Amino acid sequence: MAGRATSPNSRRARPTAEDGDQRLPREMIAEDLNDDEVFFLDEDDFHTVFQDDYYARLNVDHNASQEEIRNSYRRLSRLLHPDKHTEPWKKSLAENAFNSINAAYEVLRDPYRKSLYDACGASGTVSDLWQVVPVDPANRKTLDELKEEREKRKEKESTNPHNEMSMGLDVTDLFERRNRDTKDYGIQNYIPHVEITTLSTVQSIEAPWPQVDRFQLFSNVNYERGTGGGMFGVEMNKTLSETVTGDFKVMTGPSRGLVAHLKLNKRLDAGKYISLSAFSAFSRFGMMPLMEIAYGSNLGKLGNGRVIVRGTTRVVNVVTRIDKDFKDSRFSVTSEMSPDDVVLGITYSRKLPLAHEPKLSIGLKTGFRGVTLEYGVSRRVSKYNQLAASMALALPGGVTLRITFQRSNQAFSFPILLSHDILPAPVFYGTVTPLLLYACVKSIYFIPQWKAYVTERLRSKRNSYRSGLEEKRKEYENFLKLMIDKYEDLINSEGLSNGLVIDRAVYGRFDDFQPTMDTIDVHVQLQCLVRNHQLDLPALSKTDLPGFYDPCISERKRLQIHYIFGGKHHLVQVMDDEALHLPSPEHLVVG
Fold this sequence. Notes:
Blueprint (H helix, E strand, L loop, with lengths): L42 H5 L6 H4 L8 H15 L7 H21 L2 H10 L22 H17 L2 E9 L11 H4 L9 E13 L6 E11 L2 E13 L4 E10 L2 E12 L5 E11 L2 E13 L5 E8 L4 E10 L3 E10 L2 E11 L7 E9 L2 E11 L4 E11 L2 E10 L2 E10 L4 H43 L2 H28 L3 E12 L2 E8 L1 H6 L6 E3 L20 E8 L2 E8 L4 E3 L9
Parallel strand pairs: 1-17
Antiparallel strand pairs: 1-2, 2-3, 3-4, 4-5, 5-6, 6-7, 7-8, 8-9, 9-10, 10-11, 11-12, 12-13, 13-14, 14-15, 15-16, 16-17, 18-19, 18-21, 20-23, 21-22
């Protein structure tokens, strides 16, 4: 009885879209991803699906050390270097094969380029102007197009734009229906009244300016129940010494004078800092000064503490805060004292051990003027987007639901006043409705649409790869021509010492553990990888091993090997991305 093949269910976990050092498998389809993973793919992920795997090309694992990478490269160089072959035609074939492994080694030997490759694939290791382009000539980008794309990215990076928008809604009519005369209002009596109470936008961009570290232009526009205003200003940051930085801000707007703000920050020893701020507002009523002093320190096991004292000639406020960070959570205690109120608050937030790190938070503030309880949840919903929802129960103040959507430097916030008093209905519906609505819209619309999009993008990439398949097949045949004589020497050497001899090896699509027509013979390639009577293959797709190619794009592939070790026959079959070590007693053919 032959040694059984490894079950497909026992293979290692398939890489996900968020794995930093993994790329999407070539045979992956949208159904392989769970419902959330389809939202975490971007163009870089699709771009790297069919790029060559430099680790597999050198037959090393993604976690291989520099010494392991160097040793593997040297072993392959001894086989493939053109100087190891005398016939001119073999030298030509060897040069192509050696250039392939040398290109992989030049990237993986350099820690910086290696990190770029791990993050972005082969295109991340070269200049934007000479990036790897698809095999399909129709999709190639001209040099001018690449230059234009690079300039746009540089422009966006240099300006670093930030935008925030907040729109407040009053939907209290849903839960606090006012008595209306049906005769006067007609059908509108049955339609809840929704009012936009506030609207504000804040935006800023950075611009180069000599002799300062950062120069920023910013503005804001706000509206609240029929009245509005706005402001425009500039901000400059400058490093004055190794421990001192300065910040200067000037702003003005309609119906207000000039406002100037100067802030100095000094970093002290042992995690301490102190800052001094001075505000001056100039108007027709004169100058209004405001001073602020802040002191922060590391309190050891208690966490980090901060004290802020701010005030004018007539009013002084004191704010204190202590933050304690744990492994997956944070606990904060705050206090704010002013002449007419004292507010104490506690906040606790925790990241849940689930995919995409959803975070729960709860906080309580209490003072002479009222109490506020706030709780909420936030979660990454795609690679660059985050969605948050929170409920605030204030007495006085009522029930407010806040929904926030953030993408990179863009944020959109919607505070929705549900009721002026704390009532059971708005509390229940404000808590449950956003969760149910998100789950329904996501499952009914977004997931099917995104899976269809992912399927189409993968199909497009596979079609581009197929156009270059003939070249891959030719490289495979050239490798066999180049190494056939070396293969005979290797098996004779291994056979004389009862070592490891690869008798048969097939790679491709199998049907019930039986090879189909969509397979290739790879026993020569694997024998060339044997070292010290052993063969080790990393947990990577075998497609990019020296002398391999993909014989069945988009299909599940396996590798079946029949080998002789110690004069005994062995048989093993593994999935494409499963690690393998030969010899092993588990592979022994019995009977």
